[in-house]
Amino acid sequence: MRGNRESTPTPIERADMGRILYSMAGEGRGHATRVRTVVESLRDRHDILLYAPGDAYDLLADGVGDGGYRLRSLPGLRFGYDARGRLSPSRTAVQAARYLAALPRLVRRLAAEIEREAPDLVITDFEPALARAARRVGVPFVSLDHQHFLVVSDFASLPATLRTHARVMRGVVSLYYSGQAATIVSSFFHPPPRRGFDAVTRVGVLLRENVRAARPTREGHVVAYVRRDASLSLLDALASCGRPVRVYGLGEQPSRGALTFRAIDGQRFVDDLASSEALVSTAGNQLLGEALYLGKPVLALPETGNREQVIHAHYLESSGCGLRAEMRTVDTATVRGFLDRLEVYRARIRPEQVIGNDAALAALDPWLASPNVSNRTASSRDAKPTLAPDNGRSPSTSPPAKEPVA
After folding, report:
1. Is domain 18-206+356-382 in CATH 3.40.50.2000, yes or no?
2. Where on the phi/psi map is residue 138: left (φ > 0), alpha (ψ -120 to 50), or beta?
3. Residues 54, 152, 178, 23, CA torsion sign
4. How many CA within 13 A on the CB side of residue 279?
5. How far apart, in whole angstroms, are the C-alpha atoms of residue 116 and residue 181?
6. Rounded to an integer, what distance in angstroms lies between the CA atom of residue 72 and that of residue 400?
7. 51: helix, coil or strand?
8. Cα separations (Å) of 198 from 184, 195, 358?
9. Which of 148, 143, 186 is nearest to 169 (CA)?
């Protein structure tokens, strides 16, 4: 059972130190990866308390103490999957209803914790409860996530069906929270901003230290990351693609011809990816960004029913850095055709345009500026906040099986 994992808090003795409360969504590992990357850069200068549900908690638990942060468990929204491992809208809706019923009580609890902790800043990565609690007690909060690309982007270039799905998802994301002092969107792609959202800070993918330190090579193999709904036809296509394939996401099991199945291990996954020819994977923003930073073309296979991933795959293919295909229908010809064009895809990849670490930290710095961070933040609490444009109105400041990333 998950609980609180806290070392003795670091005393805030310097004038330039602040206290940060930071929450995240828990589905998959992309949110926790993004948060951990930010924390690695802030932990020496600030006292950080993390709130994490689900997979995110498990990923972050080993860093308590030595990692420079405290960690508390938090209920979170999760996708529901059917017996075949496919995303189920009905089961997701049931889980969401249960979460929403308990949300007012959770917000009250977190509001009391905010008052006890007296943070200088609250940051949320697509987690609604801490954001709502911060707004209730008058502490400024910043939204730093990927999902708000659905709110701030102009999707005129999308095909009509995808454009409709994007608008529906935009409405859902807008309901999570509002009133943030700033919005920072992390993504490997950047459609034009919607009117009134030009001041939103848009940055690249936040890359882990081991990804940034990796030295890409090409050793002949392909890395595949799939989830439980991977079809037999996909595995057959990978097995007959003409290259060794290292498969993650289905657990460790006996090899099948060219397929080697590996258990999730963060460092080994990065090592395999960095030395690969290409990646075949689901279409999570974080993983696609890491692959592109390492110069690897991607065959993107969105999870069945995951429209956000379909949009990711569309922008990947539009960039010329990879190909998209359907998880259920991908075949040997598709995989071989992708591998035959690797040189074309590689020529379009610009790794320096993918990374967003420095830009994200620069956007956070004004909220934690030295030397009098607490006094400055206290003054901002008394000021009328500039609201995020979740309702589409123009502001003066603009304000989701374990996997290695999502």
Report:
1. yes
2. left
3. positive
4. 33
5. 22
6. 19
7. strand
8. 12, 7, 20
9. 148
Q: Is 311:165 a contact under the CB 8 Å cutoff?
A: yes
Radius of gyration of the chain (CA): 21
List the CATH code of the domain at 209-353: 3.40.50.2000
- In this predicted model, what pLDDT tens digit does every residue of 90-142 receive, in sequence order? 566 666 667 777 788 999 999 999 999 999 999 999 999 999 999 999 999 99
Q: For residue 72, what are the CA distances in angstroms to 21, 63, 142, 162?
A: 10, 12, 19, 37
Boundaries of every domain in the chain = 18-206+356-382, 209-353
In the predicted structure, residue 393 carries a pLDDT above the cut 70:
no
List the structure tokens of 325. 């295909």
Sheet order of strands, 18-24 included: 69-73, 46-52, 18-24, 121-125, 141-145, 182-186, 201-203
| pLDDT tens digits along 128-187 | 999 999 999 999 999 999 999 999 999 999 999 999 999 999 998 988 888 899 999 999
Q: What is the pLDDT of residues 47-71, one digit of tens each?
A: 999 998 877 788 888 767 666 789 9
For position 316, what pLDDT does the model report? 98
How many of the other CB atoms lie within 10 Å of CB of 341? Answer: 15
Integer Cα distance of 191 and 152 in angstroms: 9
The rounded Cα 154 to chain-centroid distance in angstroms is 20
Query: Is-cis flag, bond preceding 302, omega within 30?
Result: no
What would the pLDDT profile of 357-377 be if each residue is shown by its tens digit? 999 999 999 888 653 444 434
Cα 192 from chain centroid? 20
List beta partners, residue 185: 145, 202
φ, ψ dihedrals at 166, nearest 5°? -65, -40
CB 146 within 8 A of CB 138: no
At residue 70, the 3 state secondary structure works out as strand
Q: Which amino acid is at 331?
A: D
* Exposed e or buried b per residue across 63-89, where buried means at least 16 C-beta atoms within 10 angstroms of its C-beta: bbeebbbbbbbbbbbbbebeeeebbbe
* Cβ neighbours around 219 below 10 Å, total: 10
Could you tell me the pTM of the whole model? Answer: 0.83
Please calculate the CA angle 360-363-368 and round it to the nearest 5 degrees.
Answer: 115
Q: Are both 18-206+356-382 and 209-353 of the same fold? A: yes
Residue with tokens 């229908």: 329
